[in-house]
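@here heads up, posting the sequence + SMILES for the pyridoxal-5'-phosphate run so it's all in one place. Ping me if the SMILES looks off, I pulled it from an old spreadsheet.
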Amino acid sequence: MKQEESSTKDTKLLFRQAYDYIVTRIELGEWQTHDKLPSIRMLAQELRIHRLTVFRAYQMLKQNGKAYVKEKSGYYVSPGNTQQVISEHPESHPVTSSGFLKNSLAEIQQVPVVYQFSQALIDPNLLPNLYLSEYVKQVFDDYPKLMGTYSNVQGDEELCEFLCRYMKESHNLQLSVSDLLVTTGGQQAIDLISRVYIRPMDPILVERPTYSSALDIFRQQGARIIPVDITLGGYDLEKVEMLMIQHRPRIFYMNPTFHNPTGYTVPKAQRKQLVELAERYHCLLVEDDAIHEMYFDEPPPEPMLTYDTNGWVVYIRSFSKYVAPGLRICVVIGRPSVITPLLTAKSLADNGTPLVNQKLFLHYFESERMRQHLKKLRIALQVRKEIVEEELKTTGWTWDSPKGGFNLWLKLPETLPVEGFLNECMEQSISFIPGIICDPLREMRSWIRLSYSFINEEHLRSGVRRLANIAERYSVR
Ligand SMILES: Cc1ncc(COP(=O)(O)O)c(C=O)c1O
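bot reply: prediction finished. Complex C-alpha coordinates:
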Protein backbone atom coordinates (compact mmCIF):
# COMPACT_ATOMS: atom_id res chain seq x y z
CA MET A 1 0.00 0.00 0.00
CA LYS A 2 2.80 2.33 0.99
CA GLN A 3 4.60 1.46 -2.24
CA GLU A 4 1.44 2.15 -4.24
CA GLU A 5 1.09 5.54 -2.59
CA SER A 6 4.66 6.46 -3.32
CA SER A 7 4.46 5.33 -6.93
CA THR A 8 1.29 7.43 -7.45
CA LYS A 9 3.18 10.36 -5.94
CA ASP A 10 6.13 9.72 -8.27
CA THR A 11 3.86 9.61 -11.34
CA LYS A 12 2.25 12.86 -10.29
CA LEU A 13 5.63 14.42 -9.80
CA LEU A 14 6.85 13.16 -13.18
CA PHE A 15 3.91 14.54 -15.06
CA ARG A 16 4.25 17.88 -13.25
CA GLN A 17 7.93 17.97 -14.21
CA ALA A 18 7.16 17.13 -17.83
CA TYR A 19 4.64 19.98 -17.77
CA ASP A 20 7.25 22.38 -16.27
CA TYR A 21 9.78 21.27 -18.87
CA ILE A 22 7.44 22.06 -21.78
CA VAL A 23 6.40 25.39 -20.26
CA THR A 24 10.05 26.39 -19.79
CA ARG A 25 10.82 25.64 -23.43
CA ILE A 26 7.80 27.64 -24.52
CA GLU A 27 8.82 30.53 -22.29
CA LEU A 28 12.36 30.32 -23.61
CA GLY A 29 10.88 30.91 -27.03
CA GLU A 30 12.16 27.57 -28.36
CA TRP A 31 8.58 26.77 -29.28
CA GLN A 32 6.84 29.89 -30.52
CA THR A 33 3.17 30.89 -30.68
CA HIS A 34 1.24 28.59 -33.08
CA ASP A 35 4.22 26.22 -33.38
CA LYS A 36 3.27 22.58 -33.39
CA LEU A 37 4.50 20.81 -30.26
CA PRO A 38 6.30 17.47 -30.69
CA SER A 39 4.04 14.45 -30.93
CA ILE A 40 3.32 12.62 -27.70
CA ARG A 41 5.32 9.65 -28.93
CA MET A 42 8.37 11.75 -29.86
CA LEU A 43 8.42 13.67 -26.60
CA ALA A 44 7.96 10.50 -24.56
CA GLN A 45 10.95 9.03 -26.39
CA GLU A 46 13.07 12.15 -25.94
CA LEU A 47 12.32 12.41 -22.23
CA ARG A 48 12.36 8.68 -21.64
CA ILE A 49 8.97 8.70 -19.93
CA HIS A 50 5.64 7.01 -20.57
CA ARG A 51 3.37 8.38 -23.33
CA LEU A 52 0.51 8.70 -20.87
CA THR A 53 2.63 11.03 -18.74
CA VAL A 54 3.23 13.30 -21.75
CA PHE A 55 -0.45 13.08 -22.63
CA ARG A 56 -1.41 14.28 -19.13
CA ALA A 57 1.12 17.11 -19.33
CA TYR A 58 -0.37 18.21 -22.70
CA GLN A 59 -3.88 18.04 -21.23
CA MET A 60 -2.77 20.33 -18.44
CA LEU A 61 -1.16 22.73 -20.91
CA LYS A 62 -4.48 22.88 -22.71
CA GLN A 63 -6.42 23.47 -19.49
CA ASN A 64 -4.06 26.28 -18.52
CA GLY A 65 -4.35 27.97 -21.89
CA LYS A 66 -0.75 27.31 -22.84
CA ALA A 67 -1.55 25.00 -25.75
CA TYR A 68 -4.51 24.31 -28.02
CA VAL A 69 -5.50 21.27 -30.07
CA LYS A 70 -6.08 21.03 -33.81
CA GLU A 71 -8.26 18.07 -34.66
CA LYS A 72 -6.20 15.18 -36.12
CA SER A 73 -3.08 17.30 -36.14
CA GLY A 74 -1.79 17.71 -32.59
CA TYR A 75 -1.00 20.31 -29.94
CA TYR A 76 0.04 23.90 -30.71
CA VAL A 77 1.46 26.73 -28.58
CA SER A 78 -1.22 29.24 -27.60
CA PRO A 79 -0.56 32.95 -28.14
CA GLY A 80 0.83 35.03 -25.25
CA ASN A 81 3.08 32.42 -23.64
CA THR A 82 6.43 32.85 -25.35
CA GLN A 83 8.90 35.61 -24.60
CA GLN A 84 8.64 38.36 -27.21
CA VAL A 85 11.74 37.57 -29.23
CA ILE A 86 10.87 39.58 -32.33
CA SER A 87 9.55 43.03 -31.73
CA GLU A 88 7.27 44.83 -34.17
CA HIS A 89 9.58 47.83 -33.94
CA PRO A 90 13.00 46.31 -33.46
CA GLU A 91 14.68 49.69 -33.19
CA SER A 92 12.70 50.48 -30.03
CA HIS A 93 13.93 47.28 -28.35
CA PRO A 94 17.40 46.76 -29.77
CA VAL A 95 18.25 43.93 -27.42
CA THR A 96 15.69 41.31 -26.48
CA SER A 97 16.38 38.49 -24.08
CA SER A 98 15.83 35.08 -25.57
CA GLY A 99 15.94 33.25 -22.26
CA PHE A 100 13.70 32.83 -19.26
CA LEU A 101 15.86 32.86 -16.17
CA LYS A 102 14.81 32.94 -12.55
CA ASN A 103 16.74 33.33 -9.31
CA SER A 104 14.15 33.48 -6.54
CA LEU A 105 16.73 34.03 -3.82
CA ALA A 106 18.36 37.00 -5.54
CA GLU A 107 14.95 38.60 -6.07
CA ILE A 108 14.44 38.76 -2.30
CA GLN A 109 18.02 39.63 -1.38
CA GLN A 110 18.19 42.52 -3.82
CA VAL A 111 15.50 44.47 -1.97
CA PRO A 112 17.36 46.94 0.26
CA VAL A 113 16.17 46.60 3.87
CA VAL A 114 17.47 47.61 7.29
CA TYR A 115 17.05 44.18 8.89
CA GLN A 116 18.67 41.86 6.41
CA PHE A 117 17.84 38.33 7.57
CA SER A 118 17.82 36.93 4.04
CA GLN A 119 21.57 37.16 3.36
CA ALA A 120 23.54 34.11 4.50
CA LEU A 121 26.75 36.07 4.42
CA ILE A 122 29.22 37.32 7.01
CA ASP A 123 28.71 40.84 8.31
CA PRO A 124 31.49 42.76 6.46
CA ASN A 125 32.45 44.34 9.81
CA LEU A 126 33.58 40.93 11.02
CA LEU A 127 36.22 40.65 8.30
CA PRO A 128 39.74 42.02 9.00
CA ASN A 129 39.34 44.80 6.47
CA LEU A 130 42.29 46.98 7.43
CA TYR A 131 44.65 44.08 7.34
CA LEU A 132 43.28 43.06 3.96
CA SER A 133 44.13 46.41 2.41
CA GLU A 134 47.77 46.10 3.56
CA TYR A 135 47.76 42.75 1.86
CA VAL A 136 46.61 44.09 -1.47
CA LYS A 137 49.68 46.32 -1.63
CA GLN A 138 51.99 43.48 -0.67
CA VAL A 139 50.59 41.15 -3.33
CA PHE A 140 50.91 43.77 -6.05
CA ASP A 141 54.54 44.38 -4.99
CA ASP A 142 55.24 40.65 -5.22
CA TYR A 143 53.60 40.26 -8.65
CA PRO A 144 54.07 43.57 -10.48
CA LYS A 145 52.50 42.23 -13.70
CA LEU A 146 49.44 40.80 -11.97
CA MET A 147 46.90 43.07 -13.62
CA GLY A 148 48.31 42.39 -17.05
CA THR A 149 47.99 38.61 -16.94
CA TYR A 150 45.19 36.11 -17.47
CA SER A 151 44.87 33.10 -15.23
CA ASN A 152 44.88 29.76 -16.94
CA VAL A 153 41.46 28.10 -17.15
CA GLN A 154 42.04 25.56 -14.40
CA GLY A 155 43.26 28.09 -11.86
CA ASP A 156 46.53 29.71 -10.85
CA GLU A 157 49.14 26.98 -10.42
CA GLU A 158 50.52 28.39 -7.19
CA LEU A 159 47.01 28.50 -5.71
CA CYS A 160 46.20 24.97 -6.92
CA GLU A 161 49.40 23.64 -5.34
CA PHE A 162 48.54 25.39 -2.10
CA LEU A 163 45.01 23.95 -2.17
CA CYS A 164 46.41 20.42 -2.63
CA ARG A 165 48.57 20.94 0.49
CA TYR A 166 45.65 22.45 2.36
CA MET A 167 43.35 19.48 1.62
CA LYS A 168 46.13 17.12 2.67
CA GLU A 169 46.63 18.91 5.98
CA SER A 170 42.97 19.41 6.79
CA HIS A 171 41.43 16.20 5.38
CA ASN A 172 44.36 13.93 4.66
CA LEU A 173 43.50 13.89 0.97
CA GLN A 174 46.22 13.13 -1.53
CA LEU A 175 45.45 15.31 -4.55
CA SER A 176 47.27 16.53 -7.60
CA VAL A 177 46.67 19.77 -9.48
CA SER A 178 44.77 17.93 -12.25
CA ASP A 179 42.07 17.03 -9.69
CA LEU A 180 41.24 20.71 -9.19
CA LEU A 181 39.35 23.50 -10.89
CA VAL A 182 39.16 27.00 -9.41
CA THR A 183 35.79 28.68 -10.01
CA THR A 184 34.30 32.07 -9.31
CA GLY A 185 32.28 31.03 -6.28
CA GLY A 186 30.31 27.89 -5.52
CA GLN A 187 27.45 29.20 -7.61
CA GLN A 188 29.52 28.98 -10.78
CA ALA A 189 30.62 25.47 -9.83
CA ILE A 190 26.99 24.30 -9.53
CA ASP A 191 26.16 25.93 -12.83
CA LEU A 192 29.10 24.32 -14.67
CA ILE A 193 28.38 20.88 -13.20
CA SER A 194 24.78 21.21 -14.18
CA ARG A 195 25.66 22.21 -17.77
CA VAL A 196 28.05 19.31 -18.13
CA TYR A 197 26.25 16.53 -16.30
CA ILE A 198 22.53 17.22 -16.74
CA ARG A 199 20.53 16.91 -19.94
CA PRO A 200 16.84 17.87 -20.16
CA MET A 201 14.63 15.55 -18.11
CA ASP A 202 17.59 13.71 -16.61
CA PRO A 203 16.55 12.47 -13.18
CA ILE A 204 18.61 14.00 -10.39
CA LEU A 205 18.33 13.66 -6.61
CA VAL A 206 18.17 16.89 -4.65
CA GLU A 207 17.73 17.39 -0.92
CA ARG A 208 14.42 18.70 0.32
CA PRO A 209 14.71 21.52 1.28
CA THR A 210 17.79 22.78 -0.53
CA TYR A 211 19.79 25.83 -1.59
CA SER A 212 17.22 27.60 -3.75
CA SER A 213 19.61 28.99 -6.37
CA ALA A 214 20.81 25.45 -7.09
CA LEU A 215 17.18 24.46 -7.64
CA ASP A 216 16.73 27.33 -10.08
CA ILE A 217 19.87 26.23 -11.97
CA PHE A 218 18.66 22.62 -12.20
CA ARG A 219 15.21 23.70 -13.34
CA GLN A 220 16.74 25.93 -15.98
CA GLN A 221 18.69 22.93 -17.21
CA GLY A 222 15.41 21.01 -17.51
CA ALA A 223 16.33 18.38 -14.88
CA ARG A 224 13.73 16.02 -13.47
CA ILE A 225 14.15 16.80 -9.78
CA ILE A 226 13.56 13.96 -7.33
CA PRO A 227 13.48 15.16 -3.73
CA VAL A 228 15.28 13.42 -0.86
CA ASP A 229 14.24 14.61 2.60
CA ILE A 230 17.05 15.81 4.83
CA THR A 231 16.46 15.71 8.59
CA LEU A 232 18.47 16.20 11.75
CA GLY A 233 19.61 12.56 11.40
CA GLY A 234 20.58 12.89 7.72
CA TYR A 235 18.79 10.94 4.97
CA ASP A 236 16.69 7.79 4.93
CA LEU A 237 19.33 5.67 3.19
CA GLU A 238 16.88 2.90 2.29
CA LYS A 239 14.78 5.46 0.51
CA VAL A 240 17.85 6.91 -1.22
CA GLU A 241 18.79 3.44 -2.45
CA MET A 242 15.25 2.80 -3.65
CA LEU A 243 15.28 6.09 -5.58
CA MET A 244 18.63 5.23 -7.12
CA ILE A 245 17.33 1.85 -8.26
CA GLN A 246 14.06 3.26 -9.54
CA HIS A 247 15.29 6.40 -11.31
CA ARG A 248 19.00 5.82 -11.99
CA PRO A 249 19.72 9.51 -11.27
CA ARG A 250 22.73 11.14 -12.95
CA ILE A 251 23.65 13.14 -9.86
CA PHE A 252 22.71 13.65 -6.22
CA TYR A 253 23.21 17.31 -5.30
CA MET A 254 23.82 17.56 -1.57
CA ASN A 255 24.98 20.08 0.97
CA PRO A 256 25.66 17.73 3.89
CA THR A 257 27.62 20.05 6.20
CA PHE A 258 25.74 22.91 7.90
CA HIS A 259 23.15 22.49 5.24
CA ASN A 260 21.48 25.48 3.67
CA PRO A 261 18.75 26.23 4.77
CA THR A 262 18.31 23.80 7.71
CA GLY A 263 21.78 23.86 9.30
CA TYR A 264 21.73 20.03 9.55
CA THR A 265 24.91 17.99 9.18
CA VAL A 266 24.73 14.48 7.75
CA PRO A 267 26.33 12.17 10.37
CA LYS A 268 29.67 10.52 9.77
CA ALA A 269 28.15 7.02 9.70
CA GLN A 270 26.01 7.85 6.67
CA ARG A 271 28.76 9.45 4.64
CA LYS A 272 30.65 6.30 3.77
CA GLN A 273 27.41 4.45 3.01
CA LEU A 274 26.31 7.19 0.63
CA VAL A 275 29.53 6.96 -1.32
CA GLU A 276 29.03 3.19 -1.55
CA LEU A 277 25.52 3.72 -2.89
CA ALA A 278 26.82 6.24 -5.42
CA GLU A 279 29.40 3.72 -6.62
CA ARG A 280 26.89 0.89 -6.78
CA TYR A 281 24.32 2.84 -8.79
CA HIS A 282 26.70 5.07 -10.76
CA CYS A 283 25.30 8.31 -9.43
CA LEU A 284 27.69 11.24 -9.11
CA LEU A 285 27.50 12.82 -5.65
CA VAL A 286 27.84 16.58 -5.92
CA GLU A 287 28.97 17.58 -2.45
CA ASP A 288 28.55 21.31 -1.92
CA ASP A 289 30.56 22.43 1.11
CA ALA A 290 30.22 26.20 1.35
CA ILE A 291 30.87 26.85 5.05
CA HIS A 292 32.86 23.88 6.28
CA GLU A 293 34.88 25.85 8.83
CA MET A 294 31.97 27.73 10.36
CA TYR A 295 31.35 25.28 13.22
CA PHE A 296 30.65 26.26 16.81
CA ASP A 297 31.91 23.67 19.28
CA GLU A 298 33.55 20.97 17.23
CA PRO A 299 34.53 20.49 13.59
CA PRO A 300 32.03 18.67 11.35
CA PRO A 301 32.65 15.13 10.04
CA GLU A 302 35.04 14.70 7.15
CA PRO A 303 33.60 15.41 3.67
CA MET A 304 32.12 12.54 1.60
CA LEU A 305 35.03 13.13 -0.75
CA THR A 306 37.38 11.53 1.77
CA TYR A 307 35.51 8.20 1.39
CA ASP A 308 35.58 8.26 -2.40
CA THR A 309 37.94 5.75 -3.96
CA ASN A 310 36.38 5.36 -7.40
CA GLY A 311 35.61 8.90 -8.52
CA TRP A 312 31.90 9.13 -7.64
CA VAL A 313 32.15 12.40 -5.69
CA VAL A 314 32.69 15.86 -7.07
CA TYR A 315 33.37 18.26 -4.24
CA ILE A 316 32.65 22.00 -4.26
CA ARG A 317 34.54 23.90 -1.57
CA SER A 318 33.71 27.58 -1.63
CA PHE A 319 35.71 30.06 0.42
CA SER A 320 33.71 33.07 -0.60
CA LYS A 321 31.13 32.90 2.18
CA TYR A 322 33.45 33.46 5.12
CA VAL A 323 36.95 34.26 3.86
CA ALA A 324 36.47 37.08 1.38
CA PRO A 325 33.11 37.34 -0.40
CA GLY A 326 34.58 40.02 -2.65
CA LEU A 327 37.11 37.54 -4.09
CA ARG A 328 34.65 34.67 -4.70
CA ILE A 329 37.17 31.85 -4.72
CA CYS A 330 35.98 28.26 -4.81
CA VAL A 331 37.64 24.99 -5.73
CA VAL A 332 35.99 21.99 -7.39
CA ILE A 333 37.71 18.68 -6.67
CA GLY A 334 37.20 15.39 -8.46
CA ARG A 335 38.90 12.78 -10.62
CA PRO A 336 40.39 14.13 -13.87
CA SER A 337 37.64 12.23 -15.73
CA VAL A 338 35.08 14.41 -13.92
CA ILE A 339 37.11 17.64 -13.93
CA THR A 340 38.23 17.64 -17.59
CA PRO A 341 34.74 18.23 -19.08
CA LEU A 342 34.21 20.94 -16.46
CA LEU A 343 37.37 22.69 -17.70
CA THR A 344 35.81 23.03 -21.13
CA ALA A 345 32.62 24.43 -19.60
CA LYS A 346 34.70 26.86 -17.52
CA SER A 347 36.63 28.00 -20.59
CA LEU A 348 33.35 28.69 -22.36
CA ALA A 349 31.98 30.57 -19.35
CA ASP A 350 34.86 32.93 -18.57
CA ASN A 351 38.22 31.42 -19.55
CA GLY A 352 39.42 31.41 -15.95
CA THR A 353 38.76 33.15 -12.63
CA PRO A 354 40.50 36.56 -12.39
CA LEU A 355 44.14 36.11 -11.41
CA VAL A 356 44.15 39.08 -9.03
CA ASN A 357 41.44 37.44 -6.93
CA GLN A 358 43.28 34.13 -6.85
CA LYS A 359 46.62 35.62 -5.75
CA LEU A 360 45.01 37.82 -3.11
CA PHE A 361 43.09 34.84 -1.78
CA LEU A 362 46.15 32.61 -1.73
CA HIS A 363 48.30 34.94 0.32
CA TYR A 364 45.52 35.99 2.61
CA PHE A 365 44.17 32.50 3.26
CA GLU A 366 47.52 30.92 4.06
CA SER A 367 48.45 33.63 6.58
CA GLU A 368 48.45 33.03 10.32
CA ARG A 369 46.23 36.10 10.67
CA MET A 370 43.54 34.26 8.74
CA ARG A 371 43.59 31.31 11.16
CA GLN A 372 43.13 33.73 14.07
CA HIS A 373 40.36 35.46 12.20
CA LEU A 374 38.46 32.19 11.67
CA LYS A 375 38.54 31.45 15.40
CA LYS A 376 37.08 34.86 16.22
CA LEU A 377 34.50 34.54 13.49
CA ARG A 378 33.17 31.26 14.89
CA ILE A 379 32.71 32.82 18.31
CA ALA A 380 31.01 35.91 16.88
CA LEU A 381 28.62 33.76 14.87
CA GLN A 382 27.73 31.58 17.81
CA VAL A 383 26.98 34.65 19.91
CA ARG A 384 24.70 35.97 17.17
CA LYS A 385 22.90 32.68 16.85
CA GLU A 386 22.29 32.60 20.61
CA ILE A 387 20.94 36.15 20.62
CA VAL A 388 18.39 35.27 17.94
CA GLU A 389 17.39 32.06 19.71
CA GLU A 390 16.89 33.95 22.94
CA GLU A 391 14.73 36.58 21.28
CA LEU A 392 12.65 33.93 19.52
CA LYS A 393 11.89 31.98 22.69
CA THR A 394 8.54 33.62 23.27
CA THR A 395 7.23 33.20 19.70
CA GLY A 396 6.21 29.55 19.90
CA TRP A 397 8.12 28.92 16.65
CA THR A 398 10.23 25.75 16.58
CA TRP A 399 13.69 24.89 15.23
CA ASP A 400 16.68 22.61 15.72
CA SER A 401 19.58 24.60 17.04
CA PRO A 402 22.38 24.33 14.41
CA LYS A 403 25.93 23.36 15.37
CA GLY A 404 27.41 25.72 12.83
CA GLY A 405 26.55 27.92 9.88
CA PHE A 406 24.59 31.08 9.31
CA ASN A 407 20.91 30.15 9.45
CA LEU A 408 17.97 29.14 11.60
CA TRP A 409 15.33 27.07 9.86
CA LEU A 410 12.11 27.98 11.61
CA LYS A 411 8.73 26.28 11.62
CA LEU A 412 5.99 28.87 12.01
CA PRO A 413 2.48 28.08 13.22
CA GLU A 414 -0.12 27.27 10.54
CA THR A 415 -1.97 30.40 11.66
CA LEU A 416 0.75 32.61 10.17
CA PRO A 417 0.51 32.77 6.35
CA VAL A 418 4.14 33.23 5.32
CA GLU A 419 3.63 35.02 2.00
CA GLY A 420 1.60 37.85 3.49
CA PHE A 421 3.86 37.93 6.54
CA LEU A 422 6.92 38.40 4.29
CA ASN A 423 5.25 41.22 2.37
CA GLU A 424 4.36 42.94 5.62
CA CYS A 425 7.92 42.49 6.91
CA MET A 426 9.41 43.85 3.66
CA GLU A 427 7.29 46.95 4.07
CA GLN A 428 8.80 47.38 7.51
CA SER A 429 12.32 46.86 6.13
CA ILE A 430 12.83 43.27 7.29
CA SER A 431 13.57 40.39 4.94
CA PHE A 432 13.93 36.63 5.28
CA ILE A 433 13.70 33.63 2.97
CA PRO A 434 10.35 31.84 2.67
CA GLY A 435 10.84 28.06 2.86
CA ILE A 436 8.77 27.43 -0.24
CA ILE A 437 11.57 28.60 -2.57
CA CYS A 438 13.90 26.01 -1.03
CA ASP A 439 11.47 23.15 -1.60
CA PRO A 440 11.64 21.19 -4.87
CA LEU A 441 7.95 20.40 -4.34
CA ARG A 442 7.09 24.04 -3.52
CA GLU A 443 5.08 22.95 -0.50
CA MET A 444 7.01 24.04 2.62
CA ARG A 445 4.74 26.95 3.30
CA SER A 446 5.17 27.19 7.05
CA TRP A 447 8.96 27.39 7.08
CA ILE A 448 11.33 30.32 6.86
CA ARG A 449 15.11 30.73 6.83
CA LEU A 450 16.44 33.43 9.10
CA SER A 451 20.14 34.31 8.68
CA TYR A 452 21.86 35.72 11.73
CA SER A 453 25.28 36.25 10.14
CA PHE A 454 24.84 39.57 8.37
CA ILE A 455 23.38 41.91 11.01
CA ASN A 456 25.25 43.27 14.02
CA GLU A 457 24.25 42.20 17.53
CA GLU A 458 22.27 45.28 18.43
CA HIS A 459 20.27 45.22 15.21
CA LEU A 460 19.72 41.49 15.58
CA ARG A 461 17.85 41.97 18.84
CA SER A 462 15.69 44.82 17.64
CA GLY A 463 15.12 43.13 14.26
CA VAL A 464 13.92 39.86 15.76
CA ARG A 465 11.66 41.74 18.17
CA ARG A 466 10.10 43.63 15.29
CA LEU A 467 9.70 40.43 13.33
CA ALA A 468 7.97 38.74 16.27
CA ASN A 469 5.68 41.73 16.76
CA ILE A 470 4.61 41.71 13.12
CA ALA A 471 3.97 37.96 13.36
CA GLU A 472 1.84 38.48 16.44
CA ARG A 473 -0.30 41.07 14.66
CA TYR A 474 -0.43 39.15 11.41
CA SER A 475 -1.47 35.73 12.73
CA VAL A 476 -4.92 34.52 11.70
CA ARG A 477 -6.84 33.51 14.79
C1 LIG B 1 24.96 25.69 -0.23
C2 LIG B 1 25.51 26.82 -1.03
N1 LIG B 1 26.18 26.55 -2.15
C3 LIG B 1 26.71 27.54 -2.90
C4 LIG B 1 26.54 28.85 -2.56
C5 LIG B 1 27.12 29.89 -3.45
O1 LIG B 1 28.37 30.21 -2.97
P1 LIG B 1 29.29 31.34 -3.58
O2 LIG B 1 28.99 32.60 -2.85
O3 LIG B 1 30.67 30.84 -3.35
O4 LIG B 1 28.97 31.44 -5.03
C6 LIG B 1 25.84 29.18 -1.41
C7 LIG B 1 25.60 30.56 -1.06
O5 LIG B 1 24.76 30.90 -0.28
C8 LIG B 1 25.32 28.13 -0.62
O6 LIG B 1 24.65 28.39 0.50
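MO: The chain is about 45% helix and 15% strand.
MO: One more: The first strand starts at residue 67 and ends at 70.
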